[in-house]
């Protein structure tokens, strides 16, 4: 069976101030063409179909168009909700839509109920594990502690229990939206940390033939059987080095996996440039970036006049301008933002406690801070879904 694995469409999202809806529509066309030209048997979409719980109308219209075109091909499609999606909204009409071969899996309670497809070698069971917010689903899975590993492990127990009832030789595919240990994040994923932990071990998914992951935006292989497709389009300059692709996965009669990457159309290259303004304007090596979307970081000791206007003359698609004067590490004018770069909210809060009272928080106090940050994040998730 040949699968096309994609995820993280983020319909409705922009790139800095650039509307990406046209590029997203081009991707949908490319997806449909790929399904047809590569004789794909099933499409799997591993979450974050939309960029937010209440997407703009134009994004909903594009999703509707994608569903109609995929259904028109007669190729089954399995989709799960991600942490950016409203599971309830995405899943509206799932029963009716399923009759057209588009299977929306957004309910945690249905993790152990697969979409069963067949080829000449027998059945393939596809299990959809939507994004599982630990605090919201721990009751469903009967776990005492709300954590990503515990709820995913419980969901996978349901998968393995159902698979054990299937005929011998049934092959299995799991769709999941999670941060799995070994994956490389970028700046454009929303933080899903719970209790100080965001990642789950790959071993959670033991016992199935292929795991189609979503959430991280870089295409990557954790094992031969566990892969991220990544987002089809860039959504931050941290993705400058990404090659945007989908996975074309062949599932053999014995459950063996072979996979190849299918490139996605990217509307414009990305470039991260750094140097003084005069260096960026004069360097002939930068000619190749003149048509790219540009993030420029100026290192001038004194901020130059009209830097954006001057950059736009050479790089007309400059979208981001930052200033990072080259200074000695002990220079008192080193920026506050630079001192905080790469530090989590938890670490910043602990540093503040140490600054105020002269000693950092003890283990118990660290737990209180973690619980507070988790409560705020869950509250924001609940309020967004309820909108």
UniProtKB/TrEMBL annotation:
Regions annotated as coiled coil: none
Q: Report domain Nuclease SbcCD subunit D C-terminal positions.
A: 267-355
Q: Which SUPFAM superfamilies match?
A: Metallo-dependent phosphatases (SSF56300)
Question: InterPro entries, per this entry?
Answer: Calcineurin-like_PHP, DNA_Repair-Maintenance_Comp, Metallo-depent_PP-like, Mre11_N, SbcD, SbcD_C
> Is-annotated flag, keyword Cell division?
no
Keywords, ordered alphabetically:
DNA recombination, DNA replication, Endonuclease, Exonuclease, Hydrolase, Nuclease
Entry superkingdom: Bacteria
Q: Where is the Calcineurin-like phosphoesterase domain?
A: 1-218
Q: Name one Pfam family in it.
A: SbcD_C
Please give the biological process terms from Gene Ontology that the record holds: DNA recombination; DNA replication
Record GO terms (molecular function): 3'-5' exonuclease activity; endonuclease activity
Q: How does it assemble?
A: Heterodimer of SbcC and SbcD.
- Purpose: SbcCD cleaves DNA hairpin structures. These structures can inhibit DNA replication and are intermediates in certain DNA recombination reactions. The complex acts as a 3'->5' double strand exonuclease that can open hairpins. It also has a 5' single-strand endonuclease activity.
**NCBIfam families tied to this protein:** sbcd
Q: Which family does it belong to?
A: Belongs to the SbcD family.
**Name of this chain's protein:** Nuclease SbcCD subunit D
């Amino acid at each position: 069976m040949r699968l096309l694995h994609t995820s993280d469409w983020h319909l409705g999202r922009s790139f800095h101030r650039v509307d990406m809806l046209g590029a997203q529509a081009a991707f949908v066309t490319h997806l449909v063409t790929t399904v047809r030209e590569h004789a794909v048997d099933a499409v799997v979409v591993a979450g974050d179909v939309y960029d937010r719980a209440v997407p703009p109308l134009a994004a909903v219209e594009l999703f509707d168009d994608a569903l109609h075109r995929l259904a028109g091909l007669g190729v089954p499609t399995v989709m799960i909700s991600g942490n950016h999606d409203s599971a309830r909204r995405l899943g509206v009409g799932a029963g009716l839509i399923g009759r057209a071969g588009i299977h929306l899996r957004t309910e945690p309670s249905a993790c152990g109920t697969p979409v069963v497809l067949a080829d000449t070698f027998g059945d393939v069971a596809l299990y959809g594990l939507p994004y599982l917010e630990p605090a919201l689903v721990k009751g469903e899975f009967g776990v005492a502690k709300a954590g990503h590993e515990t709820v995913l492990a419980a969901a996978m127990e349901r998968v393995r229990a159902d698979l054990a009832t299937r005929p011998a030789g049934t092959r299995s595919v799991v769709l999941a939206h999670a941060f799995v240990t070994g994956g490389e994040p970028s700046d454009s994923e929303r933080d899903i940390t719970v209790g100080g932990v965001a990642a789950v071990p790959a071993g959670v998914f033991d016992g199935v033939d292929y795991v189609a992951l979503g959430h991280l935006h870089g295409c990557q292989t954790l094992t031969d059987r566990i892969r991220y497709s990544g987002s089809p389009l860039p959504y931050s300059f941290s993705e400058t080095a990404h090659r945007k692709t989908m996975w074309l996965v062949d599932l053999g009669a014995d459950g063996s996996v072979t996979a190849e990457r299918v490139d996605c159309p990217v509307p414009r290259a990305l470039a991260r440039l750094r140097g003084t303004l005069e260096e960026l304007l004069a360097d002939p090596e930068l000619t190749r970036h003149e048509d790219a979307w540009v993030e420029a970081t100026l290192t001038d000791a004194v901020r130059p006049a009209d830097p954006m206007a001057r950059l736009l003359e050479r790089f007309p698609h400059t979208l981001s301008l930052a200033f990072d004067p080259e200074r000695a590490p002990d220079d008192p004018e080193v920026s506050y933002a630079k001192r905080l770069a790469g530090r989590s909210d938890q670490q910043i809060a602990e540093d503040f406690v140490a600054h105020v009272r002269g000693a950092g928080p003890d283990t118990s106090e660290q737990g209180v801070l973690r619980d507070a940050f988790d409560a705020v994040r869950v509250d924001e998730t609940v309020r967004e879904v309820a909108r």
